[in-house]
Amino acid sequence: ADPQLCCNVARNVALQADGHVLVAGYFSQAGGTSHSFLARYSSSGVFDATFPASLPPGPIDSGMTVGPDGSIYVAGGYPTSDHTDTRLVSKLTSAGALVDSYDDLHTDCCANTFALQPNGKLLIGGNFQQLGDQPRHALARLNADGTLDSTFADLAFSFDATNPNGSIFGIAAQADGKVLAVGNFTLVGARPRQYAARVVTGDVVVSRLSGQ
Fold first, then answer.
1. Which of 52, 136, 169, 194 is the most exposed place for a label (fewest CB within 10 A)?
2. Phi, psi (5° rounding) for residue 160?
3. Is the bond preceding residue 52 a cis peptide, omega within 30 degrees?
4. Looking at residue 202, what is its pLDDT?
């Protein structure tokens, strides 16, 4: 791979099903050319100058994941449909084209990490305190169309009653549907949890042999 990937920093990497490597972050050069914020390399490290279909006009935060259907989810990067802000989450096709129909929720900060569930819902952790004008302290879930999932409660990752500004840096989905969250917090839903917590989502991940 190109050792001179960025002028600043790459924040995340993800693999596509065909072996391509996606790199996202704060950079303006890749493969020795001008290429900002999102880049793709082959499994052997060859830079793909044609990806994405259009370069994001803004940097991509830490969050990035690839869905089973090839869809790519990145934190920020693209403007909202009314161009007043950057999207919290942008959804791209496997070829890197922006899916404009994916809802562009307004938020007060950024997403650091994602976990995609089998039903298409996306768990997001970050530094935000509200999402879509609803209180969501560091952890929230989006429906498959990008709208806020109102059935997933605000668990209030915080430090104390006077400082609700907890942050989540990483989340991981377990096979039983529970989600592990790590970050900078000492309370979750008013219960003491220092820097790590596990959340019950109510969604069990089911795997089965197809018989084919």
1. 194
2. -160, -175
3. yes
4. 66
DSSP code string of 43-74: TT--B-TT-SSS--SS-EEEEEEE-TTS-EEE
What is the DSSP code (8-state) at residue 95? T
The residue count of the chain comes to 212
Distance CA 190, CA 169 (A): 20
Residue 195 phi, psi dihedral angles, 5° rounding: 75, -10
Over the stretch 113-140, which tens digit does the pLDDT of each residue have? 999 988 889 999 999 999 888 999 999 9
3-state secondary structure of 132: coil
Q: What is the model's pTM? A: 0.85
Q: Which amino acid is at 116?
A: L
Query: Beta strand pairing status for 191-192 and 130-131?
Result: unpaired
Tokens at residue 146, please?
């990008």
| Environment class of 121 (CB within 10 Å of its CB; exposed 0-12, middle 13-18, buried 19+) | middle
CA pair distance 155, 172, nearest whole angstrom: 17
Both tokens assigned to 11: 């924040």
Cis peptide before 192 (omega within 30 of 0): no
131 by DSSP, 3-state: which?
Answer: strand
Q: Is the pLDDT of residue 77 over 80?
A: yes
